[in-house]
Write a structure and sequence with these properties.
With 249 residues, this protein is of the alpha+beta class. It folds into two domains: 2-183, no CATH class; 199-246. The chain has helices spanning 2-10, 22-35, 74-89, 107-123, 126-130, 133-136, 146-153, 160-169, 175-183, 199-207, 209-220, 226-233, 240-246, and strands at 39-42, 55-58, 65-68, 94-96. A hairpin with a 6-residue loop joins strand 2 (55-58) and strand 3. Helix 7 crosses helix 8 (160-169), helix 8 (160-169) packs antiparallel against helix 9 (175-183) and helix 11 (209-220) packs across helix 13 (240-246). This is ImmA/IrrE family metallo-endopeptidase. Pfam families: Peptidase_M78.
Length: 249
Protein backbone atom coordinates (compact mmCIF):
# COMPACT_ATOMS: atom_id res chain seq x y z
CA UNK A 1 0.00 0.00 0.00
CA UNK A 2 1.54 3.29 -1.13
CA UNK A 3 0.39 5.34 1.85
CA UNK A 4 1.98 2.87 4.27
CA UNK A 5 5.27 2.76 2.38
CA UNK A 6 5.35 6.54 2.10
CA UNK A 7 5.08 6.91 5.87
CA UNK A 8 7.62 4.18 6.54
CA UNK A 9 10.03 6.01 4.26
CA UNK A 10 9.58 9.21 6.30
CA UNK A 11 10.14 7.73 9.76
CA UNK A 12 13.37 8.52 11.54
CA UNK A 13 12.75 5.81 14.13
CA UNK A 14 13.39 2.12 13.38
CA UNK A 15 10.28 -0.02 12.82
CA UNK A 16 9.06 -1.45 16.15
CA UNK A 17 10.20 -5.01 16.76
CA UNK A 18 8.64 -5.48 20.20
CA UNK A 19 5.23 -7.13 20.12
CA UNK A 20 4.36 -6.01 23.64
CA UNK A 21 5.68 -2.41 23.74
CA UNK A 22 2.65 -0.53 22.42
CA UNK A 23 4.35 2.83 22.92
CA UNK A 24 7.05 2.03 20.38
CA UNK A 25 4.37 1.38 17.78
CA UNK A 26 2.61 4.66 18.56
CA UNK A 27 5.86 6.62 18.63
CA UNK A 28 7.00 5.13 15.32
CA UNK A 29 3.87 6.07 13.39
CA UNK A 30 3.61 9.45 15.12
CA UNK A 31 7.17 10.24 14.10
CA UNK A 32 6.48 9.10 10.54
CA UNK A 33 3.49 11.42 10.29
CA UNK A 34 5.38 14.33 11.81
CA UNK A 35 8.19 13.88 9.32
CA UNK A 36 5.57 13.76 6.56
CA UNK A 37 4.44 17.23 7.64
CA UNK A 38 1.46 16.44 9.88
CA UNK A 39 1.15 18.13 13.26
CA UNK A 40 0.16 15.45 15.82
CA UNK A 41 -1.16 16.60 19.19
CA UNK A 42 -3.09 15.11 22.14
CA UNK A 43 -5.62 16.36 24.63
CA UNK A 44 -4.64 16.22 28.27
CA UNK A 45 -5.46 12.92 29.97
CA UNK A 46 -8.92 13.07 31.52
CA UNK A 47 -9.88 16.25 29.67
CA UNK A 48 -12.24 14.68 27.10
CA UNK A 49 -14.20 11.46 27.50
CA UNK A 50 -13.37 8.77 24.94
CA UNK A 51 -17.09 8.26 24.32
CA UNK A 52 -17.27 11.89 23.20
CA UNK A 53 -14.17 12.01 20.99
CA UNK A 54 -11.36 9.63 20.15
CA UNK A 55 -9.61 11.91 17.67
CA UNK A 56 -10.16 14.61 15.08
CA UNK A 57 -8.28 16.02 12.11
CA UNK A 58 -8.11 19.34 10.31
CA UNK A 59 -7.01 19.43 6.69
CA UNK A 60 -4.70 22.26 5.64
CA UNK A 61 -2.46 22.35 2.57
CA UNK A 62 0.67 23.30 4.52
CA UNK A 63 0.39 21.76 8.00
CA UNK A 64 -2.58 19.43 8.54
CA UNK A 65 -3.43 18.61 12.16
CA UNK A 66 -4.37 15.41 13.98
CA UNK A 67 -5.57 15.64 17.58
CA UNK A 68 -5.71 12.43 19.65
CA UNK A 69 -7.55 11.89 22.91
CA UNK A 70 -4.90 11.50 25.60
CA UNK A 71 -7.41 9.59 27.74
CA UNK A 72 -7.68 6.76 25.21
CA UNK A 73 -5.67 3.55 25.46
CA UNK A 74 -2.37 3.54 23.58
CA UNK A 75 -3.48 0.99 20.99
CA UNK A 76 -6.70 2.90 20.47
CA UNK A 77 -4.76 6.11 19.86
CA UNK A 78 -2.60 4.35 17.28
CA UNK A 79 -5.59 3.26 15.22
CA UNK A 80 -7.17 6.71 15.57
CA UNK A 81 -3.92 8.27 14.38
CA UNK A 82 -3.96 6.33 11.11
CA UNK A 83 -7.73 6.74 10.77
CA UNK A 84 -7.29 10.51 10.87
CA UNK A 85 -4.39 10.29 8.42
CA UNK A 86 -6.79 8.53 6.05
CA UNK A 87 -9.10 11.54 6.37
CA UNK A 88 -6.21 13.81 5.41
CA UNK A 89 -5.34 11.62 2.42
CA UNK A 90 -8.93 12.05 1.26
CA UNK A 91 -8.73 15.82 1.92
CA UNK A 92 -11.50 15.59 4.50
CA UNK A 93 -11.75 16.42 8.17
CA UNK A 94 -13.03 14.09 10.83
CA UNK A 95 -14.37 14.02 14.38
CA UNK A 96 -14.29 10.37 15.34
CA UNK A 97 -16.14 8.75 18.22
CA UNK A 98 -16.70 5.15 19.29
CA UNK A 99 -19.45 4.34 16.78
CA UNK A 100 -18.66 1.22 14.78
CA UNK A 101 -18.80 0.87 11.02
CA UNK A 102 -20.74 -2.38 10.73
CA UNK A 103 -23.64 -0.50 9.16
CA UNK A 104 -22.70 2.49 6.99
CA UNK A 105 -26.19 4.03 7.04
CA UNK A 106 -25.21 7.55 5.91
CA UNK A 107 -22.53 9.24 3.78
CA UNK A 108 -20.68 10.28 6.95
CA UNK A 109 -20.67 6.73 8.33
CA UNK A 110 -19.58 5.42 4.92
CA UNK A 111 -16.63 7.83 5.02
CA UNK A 112 -15.74 6.67 8.52
CA UNK A 113 -15.87 3.05 7.36
CA UNK A 114 -13.55 3.86 4.46
CA UNK A 115 -11.07 5.60 6.77
CA UNK A 116 -11.19 2.63 9.14
CA UNK A 117 -10.41 0.31 6.25
CA UNK A 118 -7.47 2.44 5.11
CA UNK A 119 -6.08 2.66 8.64
CA UNK A 120 -6.40 -1.10 9.08
CA UNK A 121 -4.62 -1.76 5.79
CA UNK A 122 -1.74 0.53 6.76
CA UNK A 123 -1.30 -0.97 10.22
CA UNK A 124 -2.14 -4.58 9.36
CA UNK A 125 -1.06 -5.46 5.81
CA UNK A 126 -3.01 -8.32 4.32
CA UNK A 127 -0.02 -10.57 3.72
CA UNK A 128 1.32 -10.06 7.23
CA UNK A 129 -2.06 -11.01 8.72
CA UNK A 130 -2.60 -14.07 6.53
CA UNK A 131 0.90 -15.42 7.19
CA UNK A 132 0.72 -14.83 10.95
CA UNK A 133 1.27 -18.19 12.70
CA UNK A 134 -1.66 -17.54 15.04
CA UNK A 135 -4.00 -16.84 12.14
CA UNK A 136 -2.79 -19.80 10.08
CA UNK A 137 -3.35 -22.33 12.84
CA UNK A 138 -6.66 -20.95 14.11
CA UNK A 139 -9.53 -23.36 13.28
CA UNK A 140 -11.72 -21.99 10.51
CA UNK A 141 -15.15 -20.84 11.71
CA UNK A 142 -14.24 -21.01 15.39
CA UNK A 143 -14.68 -17.73 17.32
CA UNK A 144 -11.54 -16.08 18.65
CA UNK A 145 -11.19 -15.67 22.39
CA UNK A 146 -10.07 -12.34 23.82
CA UNK A 147 -6.65 -13.70 24.95
CA UNK A 148 -6.06 -15.08 21.43
CA UNK A 149 -6.94 -11.76 19.85
CA UNK A 150 -4.71 -9.80 22.21
CA UNK A 151 -1.75 -12.06 21.44
CA UNK A 152 -2.33 -11.94 17.67
CA UNK A 153 -2.79 -8.14 17.67
CA UNK A 154 0.35 -7.32 19.67
CA UNK A 155 2.89 -7.45 16.79
CA UNK A 156 0.85 -4.81 14.94
CA UNK A 157 0.42 -2.47 17.91
CA UNK A 158 -3.38 -2.50 17.58
CA UNK A 159 -6.24 -3.50 19.85
CA UNK A 160 -7.92 -6.88 19.90
CA UNK A 161 -11.05 -5.31 18.42
CA UNK A 162 -9.19 -3.71 15.51
CA UNK A 163 -7.47 -7.01 14.75
CA UNK A 164 -10.77 -8.91 14.77
CA UNK A 165 -12.35 -6.33 12.45
CA UNK A 166 -9.42 -6.75 10.06
CA UNK A 167 -9.97 -10.52 10.06
CA UNK A 168 -13.58 -9.87 9.03
CA UNK A 169 -12.43 -7.67 6.15
CA UNK A 170 -10.02 -10.36 4.98
CA UNK A 171 -12.74 -13.01 5.07
CA UNK A 172 -11.24 -14.98 7.95
CA UNK A 173 -14.03 -14.28 10.45
CA UNK A 174 -17.82 -13.87 9.93
CA UNK A 175 -19.15 -10.38 10.61
CA UNK A 176 -21.53 -11.76 13.25
CA UNK A 177 -18.54 -12.83 15.37
CA UNK A 178 -17.29 -9.24 15.38
CA UNK A 179 -20.75 -7.91 16.21
CA UNK A 180 -21.04 -10.36 19.10
CA UNK A 181 -17.61 -9.27 20.32
CA UNK A 182 -18.69 -5.62 20.24
CA UNK A 183 -21.96 -6.32 22.02
CA UNK A 184 -20.06 -8.01 24.82
CA UNK A 185 -18.01 -4.87 25.47
CA UNK A 186 -19.92 -2.00 27.06
CA UNK A 187 -17.27 0.69 26.53
CA UNK A 188 -13.80 1.27 25.12
CA UNK A 189 -10.91 -0.05 27.18
CA UNK A 190 -9.09 2.92 28.67
CA UNK A 191 -5.92 2.34 30.60
CA UNK A 192 -5.94 4.23 33.86
CA UNK A 193 -2.76 5.70 35.25
CA UNK A 194 -1.91 6.97 38.69
CA UNK A 195 -0.10 10.24 39.13
CA UNK A 196 0.62 12.93 36.56
CA UNK A 197 3.77 11.43 35.06
CA UNK A 198 6.78 13.41 33.84
CA UNK A 199 5.87 17.04 33.12
CA UNK A 200 8.13 17.41 30.08
CA UNK A 201 7.15 14.15 28.38
CA UNK A 202 3.46 14.85 28.97
CA UNK A 203 3.80 18.40 27.64
CA UNK A 204 5.69 17.18 24.54
CA UNK A 205 3.04 14.52 23.90
CA UNK A 206 0.15 16.96 24.23
CA UNK A 207 1.71 19.70 22.09
CA UNK A 208 3.19 17.23 19.64
CA UNK A 209 6.92 16.59 19.42
CA UNK A 210 7.02 17.91 15.87
CA UNK A 211 5.51 21.22 17.01
CA UNK A 212 7.94 21.48 19.93
CA UNK A 213 10.90 20.80 17.62
CA UNK A 214 9.77 23.53 15.23
CA UNK A 215 9.30 26.15 17.95
CA UNK A 216 12.48 25.27 19.84
CA UNK A 217 14.40 25.19 16.55
CA UNK A 218 13.21 28.67 15.68
CA UNK A 219 14.22 29.79 19.17
CA UNK A 220 17.65 28.19 18.83
CA UNK A 221 18.22 30.01 15.53
CA UNK A 222 17.09 33.30 17.14
CA UNK A 223 14.12 33.58 14.79
CA UNK A 224 11.90 34.12 17.84
CA UNK A 225 12.85 35.37 21.31
CA UNK A 226 12.65 33.38 24.53
CA UNK A 227 9.41 34.88 25.77
CA UNK A 228 7.67 34.17 22.47
CA UNK A 229 8.95 30.58 22.44
CA UNK A 230 7.82 30.08 26.03
CA UNK A 231 4.37 31.43 25.15
CA UNK A 232 4.06 29.13 22.14
CA UNK A 233 5.14 26.14 24.25
CA UNK A 234 3.16 27.10 27.35
CA UNK A 235 6.21 26.76 29.63
CA UNK A 236 8.59 29.03 31.50
CA UNK A 237 11.65 30.31 29.68
CA UNK A 238 13.92 28.13 31.80
CA UNK A 239 11.98 25.02 30.74
CA UNK A 240 12.39 25.46 26.98
CA UNK A 241 15.71 23.60 26.72
CA UNK A 242 14.51 20.54 28.65
CA UNK A 243 11.27 20.36 26.68
CA UNK A 244 13.23 20.59 23.44
CA UNK A 245 15.52 17.78 24.63
CA UNK A 246 12.73 15.28 25.34
CA UNK A 247 11.11 16.11 22.00
CA UNK A 248 14.04 14.90 19.95
CA UNK A 249 13.70 11.59 18.11
Amino acid sequence: MRAREHLRGQALLPPPTSATDEYKHLNYWTNALEEAGVLVMSTERGQVAVEEMRAFSLFFDLVPVIMLNGTDATRGRLFSLLHEYAHLLLHTEGLCDTTTDTRATSPDRALEARCNALAAAMLMPEQAILTSPLVKRHPAGQPWSLPELIEAAQPFGVSAEAFLRRLVTLGKVPLKHYQEFREGRDSPVVRSRSGRGNFYYTKARDLGKGYVRRVSGAHRRALIDSNTAATYLDVKVGQIAKLAEVSQV
